[in-house]
Specification:
- The chain is of the alpha+beta class.
- It has a single domain, classed as Class II aldolase/adducin N-terminal domain (L-fuculose-1-phosphate Aldolase, 3-Layer(aba) Sandwich).
- The protein contains six helices and nine strands.
- Bound molecules: zinc ion.
- The site of zinc ion (ZN) has 7 residues, from loops.
Length: about 220
């Protein structure tokens, strides 16, 4: 791997993409991962099997999306990632097609406050309206849903979470899927009780700032 631009960061992106498959947050080649390094972004390539992906397959682009290094095309969802870096101060982005969140997106416009962990996103989490994948319309819908938050659900699609590191973004992706799963399970047998908005706000303050729990 010697001589590869941002070799460690590319390896970290591969490792996380493979973990998404193991953790069932994506199926096949769906979903994507990126992290920002200065004015560059390291992102998963389009349509490549995560099991056989190597660091050299990971693409390096600038903040306009121009490829700086790499032989493959960047993920078709690159506009989603770039807007998180240019508009939302993210350092890493994880986009999943996880089951419970996608199912919830067919039923609701927000993620119900079934658990205080919702506060790790900075407050109530929205479901971004549907638009065709890879379009600027989807980018804009997601950017609006992310205002003041570190994650959102995407209708008929999946989730998108940001963080100060790949690990932080990934933890949010798993937590968001879990929150949606809890609601789906509870609502399958009844009408779930929800935390009142002022309690969610109280926990947001306890977590501090942009929703980073003090324990992580
Ligand atoms: Zn997607």
């Amino acid at each position: 791997m010697s001589g590869l631009l941002l070799a460690d960061e590319r390896a970290a992106v591969v490792a996380l993409a493979q973990r998404m498959v193991r953790d069932r947050l994506v199926v096949g080649t769906s979903g994507n991962v990126s992290q920002r390094c200065g004015d560059l972004v390291v992102c998963t390539p389009s349509g490549t099997d995560y099991d056989t992906m190597r660091p050299a397959d990971v693409v390096v682009v600038d903040l306009d999306g121009t490829v700086v290094d790499g032989d493959l095309r960047p993920t078709v969802e690159l506009p989603l990632h770039l807007v998180c870096y240019t508009e939302h101060e993210a350092r890493a982005v994880v986009h999943t097609h996880s089951t419970a969140a996608t199912a919830l997106s067919l039923l609701r416009d927000d993620v119900p406050a079934v658990h205080y962990q919702l506060a790790m996103f900075g407050g109530p989490v929205s479901v971004a309206p549907y638009a065709t994948y890879g379009t600027t319309q989807l980018r804009d819908n997601v950017s609006r849903a992310l205002a003041g938050r570190s994650g959102c659900v995407m209708k008929h699609h999946g989730t998108l979470c940001t963080g100060s590191s790949l690990g932080a973004a990934y933890d949010r992706a798993r937590q968001l899927e879990w929150l949606c799963d809890v609601w789906m399970r509870a609502s399958a047998v009844g009408v779930p009780a929800l935390l009142p908005p002022d309690e969610v706000e109280r926990v947001v303050e306890r977590f501090g700032g942009y929703g980073q729990p003090p324990t992580t």
